[in-house]
Write a structure and sequence with these properties.
about 80% helix; 11 helices
């Protein structure tokens, strides 16, 4: 009887929790197919707002800029974050390690408005015109720490003796990294890139501080339109973003599962031989 009550409570809590998180998203997706201009009144099923997006130059330009910033900043952040993770996961200690790790992890807990304001003051101090590259630099700075955390957790499960054995056999350090270490931590690197890209795609606060003329990101464009009233086109573009992110997460999950399965199969073959 107690077990039944416990299961009922767990199921109810789970349903309420997921409803609180995902019911607004489901409503947004459903009303993106609403034929009525009023987003709160259902007027029948229609895909005309998706067609209308093709003629909305402002939103299309914002999407193009956002994707460019996300791809460039996520790629740079992945390289820098992976290098930082390798340093933090290394067995040897060096002077300033505590300070270095603190600087890497600081953006994780620092409010975005402080990061945005500090970046704005930096660009003003160096007399840098704000635009595409200032947003890219700002996004790289605050997403790099997330990549470092993800890759470092992957390196914690990596047997460093494999790379050390390759070096003892005469393999150069750089080649040993690309041939032995990188394939083992590649799922973590891909997950870090995906996380960095998603954070860049979603950012509004930092981009608002570091943007300039001709560099309006999609969250900024959506926010400016929402202040004048929500339109079905916004629901449509948000649905496309949700679909893209969901497909990306599923792809990364499948790659991680495939890599894990392959690793288990290799271990089984070695054990059998």
């Amino acid at each position: 009887m107690k077990a039944l009550k416990k299961d009922w409570f767990s199921i109810t809590s789970l349903v309420l929790g997921f409803s609180f998180l995902y019911l607004p998203i489901v409503i947004l997706v459903v009303f993106s197919f609403n034929s009525s201009k009023l987003v709160t009144v259902w007027g029948g099923f229609s895909t005309k707002w998706y067609s209308a997006l093709l003629h909305n130059e402002q939103l299309l330009s914002a999407v193009y800029i956002t994707l460019r910033i996300g791809l460039v900043s996520a790629s740079i952040a992945t390289v820098l974050g992976t290098m930082a993770a390798l340093v933090l996961a290394g067995r040897g200690r060096f002077m300033g390690r505590t300070l270095f790790s603190g600087m890497i992890y600081a953006p994780l807990v620092m409010p975005e408005i402080i990061l945005g304001l500090s970046m704005l003051l930096l660009f003003v101090a160096v007399d840098q015109a704000r635009g595409f590259w200032t947003i890219t630099i700002a996004h790289t700075s605050f997403t790099m720490c997330y990549v470092a955390v993800v890759v470092q957790s992957r390196l914690a499960m990596f047997d460093q003796s494999l790379e050390e054995a390759a070096r003892d056999l005469g393999c150069p350090p750089l080649k040993a990294f690309f041939v032995i270490t990188l394939p083992q931590i590649l799922p973590g690197v891909l997950a870090g890139w995906m996380l960095a890209f998603t954070l860049s795609l979603d950012d509004l606060v930092i981009a608002s501080f570091t943007s300039g003329p001709g560099a309006t990101t999609l969250p900024m464009a959506i926010y400016s339109q929402v202040r004048r009233g929500v339109t079905p086109e916004i629901n449509a573009i948000c649905t496309i973003m949700i679909t893209a992110v969901t497909l990306g997460v599923i792809t990364i999950s499948l790659l991680n599962k495939q890599a894990h399965t392959k690793k288990q199969s290799s271990a089984t073959i070695r054990a059998g031989s």
